[in-house]
User: What shape does this take?
Amino acid sequence: MSHDEARAAELSAGFPRQTLVSIAVFCVLWQALSYFAPALGIPAFAIPGFAKIWASLIKITPIDVLVTLARVIGALILSFVLGVALAMAMYRSTSLENYLHPMVRLFMAVPVVSWILFAVLWFRGVEFRIAFVLIAVCGPVFLVDALDAMRGVPKELRGMMRSFRPTPSQFFIKLMLPAILPSLITSWKINLSLAIRVVTIAELVGAVTGIGHQLAVAQELFSVADVFAWTLVLVALLFALEAVVARFERRVLRWRA
Assistant: This one.
């Protein structure tokens, strides 16, 4: 085993231990603050102990978790399909790229709050509002990353592939897709984290189900324990989705190992 491989193995082996230590230290500090909060002039409900947080966790309604998960996955799939399709069209047409690229940059500059306000004003259905916000935020990321990856394919490879006179679908499937796949997986990792944060904000406006709605209810009741519990659920949901993407990445990109 080389020095670099040994170092990588050492880091990978030490990472879980360091993570557990960091989490343990945080938990101890939080629990200590929950005990001493009144003495520090902080309301007791502001820093709940883990007993109260656990009581809130066991009351989590699975249907709200599933609804939020379905909204995230559905919107991300639509964003991915639209983003990659537009990237392919812009790649094949320089004129189309010149016209659409400024609009894509404009979309990426619009704050999430503005998209939510637009959705409220434009759509009546809550699901349309949430889907619109997620697609408007995540779609341009897929588009830009896919287009940049296509532009990064070496000219020699493109020329060699065209010498076999492939159909447009063959050209994309045989050359472009394998070449841009690492960038697309990276886009999924970025958008998963982005979508989890955005969907909770979108669900605050008009939704009667989902984690965002439950966070709004907890805020109205001044229940910090419930907010903490639902936040933990969001974090766990993100880690689970990232684990699925990481497993897919290891499977389809075995050649990089």
Residues 1-46 form one domain. The radius of gyration is 23 Å.
